[in-house]
Amino acid sequence: MKCPFCGDQESKVIDSRRSEDGNSIRRRRECLACLRRFTTYEIVESLPIIVVKRDGSRQGFDRNKVLNSMVRAFDKRQVDVSDLDRITTEIEQSIQNTLEREVSTDKIGEMVMARLKPIDEVAYIRFASVYRRFQDVSGFVHEINKFLEEK
Q1: 28 by DSSP, 3-state: which?
Q2: 124 is in which domain, residue-wise?
Q3: Kind and range of the H or E element at 24?
């Protein structure tokens, strides 16, 4: 591992521990040349996820887009951002665990809605209104009625 201070390639591991989320390993290293310490993280390399948008275009999966869409749904609502981050990680891992390299925005939206519903009803309806692109009040009322029936 290249030392960020002197550039030497030789270092030794002083300490290793799993990160809180369990998805990476944090290693404290000491450079054998300059004796300065630095931290590295080791993670599993995953294949990129391609998102197929409604218009047919494709782009790489961006967890920040998923997270930001939920943050907007919770505008002026009580929510712990760590819960939204956990949901985003669950969705990303769920997609990674399927062997498909492409996923539609519809599937991602359904995964988000399934996780928002038990947390906050208003945020769920807000997200659904954007995700399902309600054109008029009847679509909105239909979604609320469907939600109430399932409850």
Answers
A1: strand
A2: 50-150
A3: strand 24-31
Query: pTM, whole model, 2 decimals?
Result: 0.63
**Torsion sign (Cα): 105, 110, 114, 116:** positive
Query: What is the mean pLDDT of each successive set of 10 residues along the chain, which is 151 residues long?
Result: 94 91 89 96 83 94 94 91 92 87 93 92 86 74 78 68
pLDDT at 99: 77
- Do 41 and 25 contact (CB within 8 A), yes or no? yes
Q: Decide if 97 is inside a domain.
A: yes
Provide the 3-class DSSP secondary structure of residue 31. strand
Partner residues linked to 60 by β-bridges: 50
Residues 104 and 133 occupy one common structural domain: yes
Looking at the structure, tell me whether residues 118 and 82 fall in a common domain.
yes
Q: How far apart are CA 114 and CA 77, in angstroms?
A: 18
